[in-house]
Every structure is written in C-alpha cells, then in structure tokens.
Design brief:
5-stranded mixed beta sheet, 5 strands, 193 residues, single chain
Length: 193
C-alpha cells in the first residue's frame, strides 16, 4: 500500500446489497480509539452487533447513507451502493477536521470516485477495525428499518429475513405478492408481478 501522511482512516461498508426488499445502507466510520470485539457484522450475533453498534455510535464518528428500493430499481444496485457510500462519507467528512488528510478503506473490490484517497479491500470487514465498525453500523441501521416493515406488512416476516431471499420470503411472495418496498428489477420479484 502506498504511504500516506494521514490522520483519519475511514472504514466504509454497506448492508442490503443482495436483498430483495428495502434500501441499501452504507456507513462510514472513523475510530479515534480502538473498540474491542469489532468483527465482520455477518459473524456476530444480533446482540453482539447491537452492543457494538451502541459503542461505535458513542465513541466514534459515523456517517450513514441510505438509498431506497426505488433508486436501486432506477440506477441499479452497484450505482445505488456507491451513492449510499458517497452520502455516508460526505456526512462523516462534514464533522471531521477539514485540515487532516483522510484515507477511505472500503470493503469489497469496486472502484470508486471518492474525493479523497481510497482503497478497496476484499474481506476488509474482517481485516480492518474501521471497516468492521462500518459493517456493523450499516447492518444494524438497515435491520432496524426492515424490522419496522414487520408492523407495516404482517405476514412477510421482514424482522426475520430482513428482505433477503429466504424460503419464508419466497413463501410470503407466493402467498401475498410483491409489495411497494420490493426491488421490482430483481428476478425473483419480477416473477411474481
């Protein structure tokens, strides 16, 4: 990796890219000091994620970007994910010292056009604490949004599957049809329209 004189290592990750319903959520996180227990959100229990989420919110600097299912259908998931990440980064940079040099560290292998130096890391959410923190914030934020769908759309089990393509989600689609929160350009949803 190229050497940078920097003050901020910003982790960026998303949640919901492969889901069939709801938004894609991205988070950008700067950790001013280490937080013990950080890991890829996918290997943590819901309780561990919630506990770490609270610590991150209280002890770190955080930006969140949310792009709706409508925008995902209009732009495509890759562009929507990039837009969510840009929004999260912009929100975070607004509260950091503008004289410091940040470096964005992004989970995955996409190429970005961020306004600051940045690198993508495959499995970065399991390799770098700042990306792990972003993974947790994005996942918990999105999970909370999808749990709210549970009350609005009984029978779809959104609190359980969070919009992903589980058998229960398939069964609900077969029984009740697609909702306005479903991503209409996704093949499993198009099949029930």
């Amino acid at each position: 990796m190229q050497s940078y004189s920097l003050h901020y290592r910003i982790g960026i990750d998303e949640a919901g890219r492969g889901a069939w319903a709801g938004p894609v959520v991205a988070a950008a996180v700067y950790l001013p000091s280490p937080i013990q227990g950080l890991a890829d959100s996918k290997v943590l229990s819901p309780k561990q994620r919630e506990n770490l989420f609270q610590r991150i919110i209280n002890e770190a600097y955080v930006g969140v970007g949310v792009v709706s299912h409508e925008d995902i259908d209009a732009k495509g998931i890759k562009a929507a994910t990039h837009a969510a990440m840009e929004c999260a980064l912009k929100e975070l940079l607004a509260v950091l010292d503008p004289t410091a040099t940040p470096l964005a560290m992004v989970d995955g292998n996409d190429r970005f056009t961020f306004s600051i130096p940045h690198f993508s890391y495959i499995r970065g959410d399991s390799r770098f604490p700042c990306i792990s923190a972003a993974s947790i914030v994005a996942k918990v934020h999105r999970d909370r949004l999808l749990c709210a769908y549970e009350e609005m759309y009984p029978g779809y089990n959104f609190a359980q599957h969070k919009g992903y393509g589980t058998q229960k989600h398939r069964d609900a689609l077969a029984q009740f049809g697609a909702l306005d929160v479903h991503r209409k350009t996704y093949a499993p949803i198009r099949q029930v329209l």
